[in-house]
Automatic annotation (TrEMBL):
GO terms for biological process: regulation of neurotransmitter secretion. GO terms for molecular function: calcium ion binding. One of its GO terms (cellular component) is synaptic vesicle membrane. Belongs to the MCTP family. Residues 15-134, 178-297 form the C2 domain. This is C2 domain-containing protein. Pfam families: C2 (PF00168). Keywords: Calcium, Metal-binding. The keyword Cell inner membrane does not apply. It comes from Ameiurus melas (Black bullhead). InterPro entries: C2_dom, C2_domain_sf.
Amino acid sequence: MIALSLSTTGRSLTGINTVVPSNADPPALVSPGMYQLDIVLKKGINLAIRDRGGTSDPYVKFKIAGKEVFRSKTIHKNLNPVWDEKVTLLVDNIREPLYVKVFDYDFGLQDDFMGSAHLYLESLEQHRSLDVTLELKDPHYPDHNLGSLELAVTLAPKEGDFRENTMLLRRSWKRSSKYQSLRLSDVHKKSQLWRGIVSISLIEGRNLQPMDANGLSDPYAKFRMGHQKYKSKTIHKTLNPQWREQFDFHLYDEVGGFIDITVWDRDAGKRDDFMGRCQVDLSLLSKECTHKLDLPLEEGEGMLVLLVTLTASAAVSISDLSVNMLDDPQERRGILHRYVSVNELG
């Protein structure tokens, strides 16, 4: 077991206690080249409370050299979440530590920081699976106990041509800006695939909460699924808004996912008023079928009415759109149109 405590200053291995057999060989000296880093994000233990109900909705981000290379799923209302997510990274400089950050997912608001840690790759024994415990800390409050993460990691030099194996990565990655040489950021870009389309029709709201002095509201809705966001138009002076808006999100996982929805009252010149929230669990919906959903608003009044359709899609790679020309121009235009990012929240 390797116990790693957070040290945000330098690359000192102080605070890292490595327990290995007495006859084990010391870690090999680092050398330039490509390395394969296999990580299993197992679970969190005694994570920080960030929500009013005495719990949190944690998810984990990995960064290398300032680039986000992985984001886990969100485990709702759990301080001891079990992820069991497997990740394969290609790393071209193991002197760059893996930066691990944990956040509490908040509906429609900025996510709350729950702690961070560094995994120093050059300290790892190569060609061996190691159990790692990362002690989470807040650099501004280093004495606070924020719990820990448990991982299993394996580091090994990547031999030969790795280009044919890039599509074997088991997770979706954040897009990099441009296709250059097939380095770390490009591997992540190439492996971002969507598995389906979630088509959402925001039909109407019913009996929403009055927020203004006239006994009415000016409601609009915000939708969020992972990094994808959408904001509806504002319907003025009504408790029963008729939106009739349609938009799409892309599914990057084989199954599941949550759509988080918040409703707000628009106030000119002042902070908008929160009117309630609801959630759609996509794992409960069958594919190739339109579902009419009446969603009561928590922490508010009334409900939203949606139509939601899940459509399976052949996996489409971002690099297929940005690098390789499709033979059929009409097909290319169609795929690009489907991939246009939805409106950012204001």
